[in-house]
Amino acid sequence: MNKKLLFPCLALVLGSGAGYATSVMAQAKPDVLVKQRQAVMTLQGKYFGPLGAMASGKAAYNVETVRRNAGFLDNLSRMPWDGFDPNTKGEKSRALPAVFENKAKFDAGASTLENEVSKLVSVSRSGDEAAVKAQITAVGKVCGACHNDFRAK
Amino acid sequence: MNKKLLFPCLALVLGSGAGYATSVMAQAKPDVLVKQRQAVMTLQGKYFGPLGAMASGKAAYNVETVRRNAGFLDNLSRMPWDGFDPNTKGEKSRALPAVFENKAKFDAGASTLENEVSKLVSVSRSGDEAAVKAQITAVGKVCGACHNDFRAK
Questions:
Q1: What confidence category does residue A7 fall into, taking pLDDT thresholds of 50, 70 and 90?
Q2: Chain A within 8 Å of B55 (Cβ-Cβ)?
Q3: Which of A79, B4, B48, B72 would you call most buried, defined as having the most Cβ atoms within 10 angstroms of its Cβ?
Q4: pTM for this predicted structure
């Protein structure tokens, strides 16, 4: 493929909206940033949900699922934060103004999530079922605490 | 936290719609599956877009960005496929009937994407700029080929 054709081609094949071509070249538009960070939250739900169900005894424990999902979550937990750009303040979303007004606390919550998920990866490789479930619970608490402070009900 | 309280709590804090509680316990509802697979595509765009721009000379080459994004894409490329469940045929999306009617070809495309992204991870760690850009181009071709066959214009 002619490399000079690749970029416009990519914009066509990958584009998920009018904001896409811009997002490749520079700061993404606010609506694109919101869509991207919400996409991460959707996928965190997809991969954490079954683990929460295991930790609470609502689903059978399956260590292979925990390991796979923890690995995905380890990546996903690092993806949302650049989407909370101050430029997105005016966009429709459930993010409360506190995200931007109390950025230090928000950033601390983000780091805590990354760290607790990273621990879940480690524990799921070496730990016993009780330890894994306890770490799943720890991750769930971090999700909940941040949503309580920074997300509209 | 009382573990018996964790599941309902998770449903509240993580839920992204009425279908969520169901998705934790069993097969997710079709609309949730579509939302989840579209979320993956959105994020693949987020992390592949800048690489495409580098490969085509529209953005400055930055190997650290390539490595980070390739790592994210290596995970993301394994996330969409269970969302293309036959139960989602009736949902509004750009997925063409060919996804379900030509499943062997679709699955082959999925595997090819995973493999080419995995190669990008390797090449970005060890290869030179030209090799990395060539592999970015290879990944872009796989995206485009599959979208041509299986996604509405």
A1: very low
A2: yes
A3: B48
A4: 0.86
The pLDDT assigned to A26 comes to 57
Asked if B58 and A14 come within 8 Å (Cβ–Cβ), the reply is: no
Average of per-residue pLDDT across B7-15: 44
CA of B18, closest CA in chain A: separation in Å? 13
What is the complex's ipTM, to 2 decimals? 0.85
| Interface contact B3-A58, CB threshold 8 A | no
Residues A76 and B53 sit within 8 Å (Cβ to Cβ):
no
Q: Determine whether A143 is exposed, middle or buried from the number of CB atoms within 10 Å of its CB (0-12, 13-18, 19+).
A: buried
**B136 with B66: CB under 8 angstroms?**
yes
Tokens of B39: 């979320």
Please judge whether B144 and A13 are an interchain contact, meaning their C-beta atoms are less than 8 angstroms apart: yes
pLDDT tens digits, residue range A19-51?
333 344 457 999 999 999 999 999 999 999 999
Place of tokens 């996804």: B99
Contact A49 B133 (CB under 8 A): no
Question: Could you tell me if B127 lies within 8 Å of chain A, comparing CB atoms?
Answer: no
Say if A53 is an interface residue toward chain B (CB within 8 Å). Answer: yes
Residues A123-128, mean pLDDT to the nearest whole number: 94
Dihedral, B23, B30, A148, A77 alpha carbons, nearest 10: 80
Interchain contact, A24 vs B75, CB within 8 Å: no
